[in-house]
């Protein structure tokens, strides 16, 4: 809800979330590498880190630490699965887009914070369009035969 405090706070939140989206996946990768070096088994690293995050994360949910621990365990396991299967870039992109849920977004043009919502939505759309364009690698979107019919 910090995005309701003004444009400066919104821009500061954007860059803070971007910084954390770049830092956290690298730290997770570093943790996996360190645990794998110590124990010499990949599966130990994949299970030890989520367990550690689950135990520590349960302390941040004082009303129900068991649910908090399970949530943190599953979230860390999902992040490790994305990191191992798709790579560091995929986890950075996933973290970036997931952290933008913290911004207040509306599609109601009569809302007083619609300008910030439109800026957030347009930024997300621009990043997605740029990613799609670069993933084509110079290829055309449609073949000529499709356009000639």
Shape: flat
**Mean pLDDT, as a whole number?**
83
- Helical coverage, percent range: over 70%
Largest sheet: none
The total of helices stands at: 6
The portion of residues forming beta strands comes to: under 5%
Structural class by secondary-structure content = mainly alpha
Q: Segments where pLDDT lies below 50 for 5+ residues?
A: none
Our Rg estimate from Cα atoms comes to 20 Å
Please describe the structure with a list of short key phrases separated by commas or semicolons.
single chain, 149 residues, mainly alpha, 2 domains, 6 helices, 75% helix, 0% strand
Structure description:
The protein folds into 2 domains: 1-103, no CATH class; 105-149, no CATH class. 75% of the residues lie in helices and 0% in strands. It has helices at 7-39, 42-58, 65-86, 88-99, 114-136, 144-148. The longest helix has 33 residues, at 7-39.
Topology:
Layout (H helix, E strand, L loop, with lengths): L6 H33 L2 H17 L6 H22 L1 H12 L14 H23 L7 H5 L1
Short description:
The protein is mainly α and 149 residues long. It has helices at residues 7-39, 42-58, 65-86, 88-99, 114-136, 144-148.
